[in-house]
Design brief:
Rossmann fold; six-stranded mixed beta sheet; five-stranded parallel beta sheet; 20 helices; 14 strands
C-alpha cells in the first residue's frame, strides 16, 4: 500500500517511509492511497474472531505486503496483548474500556503497535532513531512505556508545565534510559508546534534521524481502528447490530480512526464527538468556518487542543464535503462544571467511576440519544483509567478506584525532566547538544 499526503495526492511513499517520516515535507498528513474494503463474510461473522485475529485482518488490509503476514501476526500479538472490554451500563448503553494497557490509556494501542513496527523496520547499525512527541497527558506515558528499552531508539517527550495530572507526569518523567522528558512552560499546542517545526527543519534532520510518535504518525492511527471492530464484534455476540460511537475528542485521532474503520466497511449508524471548551471542531460543524484558537486548560487535559492535527485526515476521508461529514458526525461541547456533573451522574446512576474525558463522552452520548431516539447501542469510549485523575474526581468517589498493577510503583520515583520555555532555538540546541 502506498500513502499520499493530504496536501498532495501525487506525493506517495511506502508504509515504511510514511512511518519514519511521520510528516510529508509539504506539511500534510499521510493517508492510504485507497481505503480497503473488508470482506462481507468477515464482517458478518466478526463475533467468531479474537481481538488479535480482527486486528490482523485490518492491519493486513491497510499495510499489505510491506510486512509479511507471519511477521505482522507476531507483531500484533506482542503489541495488542490486553483487552478492550465492552461493559453495559443499561440494556442499550455501554462503555468501551480502553485503559487496560500498561499506561492505563487508549494511547497504548497506537504506541505499542508503532514501536514494534519501527523496531521491525529498523536495521542493525542504522543511525539512532529519535522519536519526538508532544503530549497533553496520555500520549507521553503510552509512548514512554511503548518504547522503553527498545534498541536503537531515543524518545523525547514535550509536555506542558502544570497541565498534566500527577500520575501522567510520573509516567512521563520517571523512566530514564532511552526516554527523555521536557517540561515546556506553555500549552500543548506550543509543544506540538515545536515538534512540527523540528520535523520541517532541514538542518536538524541532517543531524538526527527524526520521527514522530504523535497521532500524526499513520502507525498510530491504524491500530486505533482495531478496537472499533472489536467493540462491534462484542455487540454482535449479543445480537446487537446497530451502534452509535461517542468519542471524547481533542486532537481527533481517536474518532479519526473510527471514521477510517467506518470507511473500511464497519457498520456504524453515527459518530458523536464530545469535546471540552476547546471547541474548534464543533464550531466548524455549526458555522462551516475552521477557526483554531489557543487551547484552554480543563479537567479533561488530554483534550486541551485548540488546533487538532488529525482534523485534516477526517476532512480527507469525507472529500472536504461538510454536508457529507455532518451526516455521519455530530459534536457536543462541555465545560468543567458539566464534566464534574457527568462524573457524578455516572457514579450515582451506575456506580461507575470515570475520568473527565469519559464523562464528556457519556454526556455527549446521552445528548445524542435524547435528540435521536432509536433501537441502537450507544457505546461511549473510556479513554483513561480514573486513577490518573485523582485531582478531578470527588475524593469520596475516588475511594472506589482500584489502582492497576504497577501504578503504586510510580510514586516516589525521582522526576527526570528538562525545564524549557517555548523557544524553538533552545529546543533545537538541546537536541543537537544532547545527540
Amino acid at each position: 500500500m502506498q500513502f499520499y499526503s493530504t496536501n498532495n495526492k501525487d506525493l506517495r511513499v511506502s508504509f515504511q517511509e510514511a512511518v519514519f517520516n511521520s510528516l510529508p515535507q509539504d506539511k500534510g498528513l499521510y493517508m492510504p492511497e485507497e481505503i480497503p474494503q473488508l470482506a462481507p463474510y468477515f464482517l458478518k461473522n466478526i463475533q467468531q474472531y479474537s481481538f488479535q485475529e480482527i486486528a490482523f485482518q485490518i492491519a493486513n488490509a491497510i499495510i499489505g505486503k510491506d510486512i509479511p503476514e507471519a511477521d505482522l501476526k507476531k507483531l500484533i500479538n506482542d503489541a495488542i496483548n490486553f483487552d478492550a472490554p465492552l461493559k453495559f451500563l443499561s440494556a442499550d448503553t455501554a462503555v468501551l474500556e480502553l485503559f487496560h494497557g500498561p499506561s492505563y490509556a487508549f494511547k497504548d494501542f497506537g504506541a505499542r503497535f508503532m514501536s514494534r513496527v519501527m523496531g521491525y523496520f529498523s536495521k542493525q547499525g542504522d543511525k539512532l532513531l529519535d522519536v519526538l512527541v508532544a503530549t497533553s497527558g496520555d500520549t507521553g506515558g503510552a509512548v514512554a512505556l511503548g518504547f522503553l528499552g527498545v534498541e536503537g531508539t531515543r524518545v523525547t517527550i514535550l509536555y506542558p508545565k502544570g497541565k498534566v495530572s500527577k500520575v501522567q507526569e510520573e509516567q512521563l518523567t520517571t523512566n530514564g534510559r532511552n526516554i527523555r522528558a521536557i517540561e515546556i512552560d506553555g500549552t500543548f499546542d506550543d509543544c506540538q508546534a515545536l515538534v512540527k517545526q523540528a520535523f520541517n527543519d532541514p538542518e536538524l534532520n541532517k543531524e538526527l534521524r527524526l520521527t514522530s510518535a504523535n497521532s500524526i504518525n499513520i502507525a498510530r492511527l491504524i491500530p486505533q481502528t482495531f478496537y472499533y471492530f472489536w467493540a462491534y464484534a462484542q455487540l454482535k455476540a449479543q445480537g446487537i447490530n446497530e451502534v452509535v460511537f461517542t468519542v471524547p475528542s481533542g486532537n481527533f485521532g481517536n474518532i479519526g480512526a473510527g471514521l477510517l474503520a467506518y470507511r473500511m466497511g464497519l457498520p456504524v449508524e453515527h459518530f458523536v464527538a464530545g469535546t471540552n471548551v476547546n471547541d474548534t471542531v464543533p464550531r466548524f460543524l455549526n458555522s462551516g468556518k475552521y477557526e483554531p484558537k489557543s487551547s484552554v486548560q480543563t479537567l479533561a487535559n488530554a483534550m486541551d487542543v485548540g488546533n487538532p492535527s488529525n482534523w485534516v485526515r477526517i476532512q480527507d476521508l469525507f472529500h472536504n464535503n461538510l454536508e457529507e461529514l455532518k451526516s455521519v458526525v455530530t459534536s457536543y461541547t462541555y465545560n468543567d462544571e458539566e464534566t464534574v456533573n457527568g462524573m457524578k451522574e455516572l457514579y450515582d446512576n451506575y456506580k461507575y467511576v470515570a475520568c473527565p474525558h469519559t464523562a464528556i463522552a457519556y454526556l455527549a452520548s446521552e445528548a445524542y440519544r435524547n435528540e435521536h431516539p432509536g433501537e441502537y447501542a450507544s457505546v461511549f469510549l473510556s479513554t483513561a483509567h480514573p486513577c490518573k485523575f485523582s485531582e478531578a474526581i470527588d475524593s469520596e468517589v475516588f475511594k472506589d478506584v482500584k489502582l492497576p498493577e504497577g501504578a503504586e510503583k510510580l510514586q516516589g520515583k525521582p522526576k527526570l525532566a528538562e525545564a524549557m520555555n517555548v523557544d524553538y532555538a533552545t529546543f533545537k540546541e538541546y537536541l543537537i547538544k544532547n545527540n
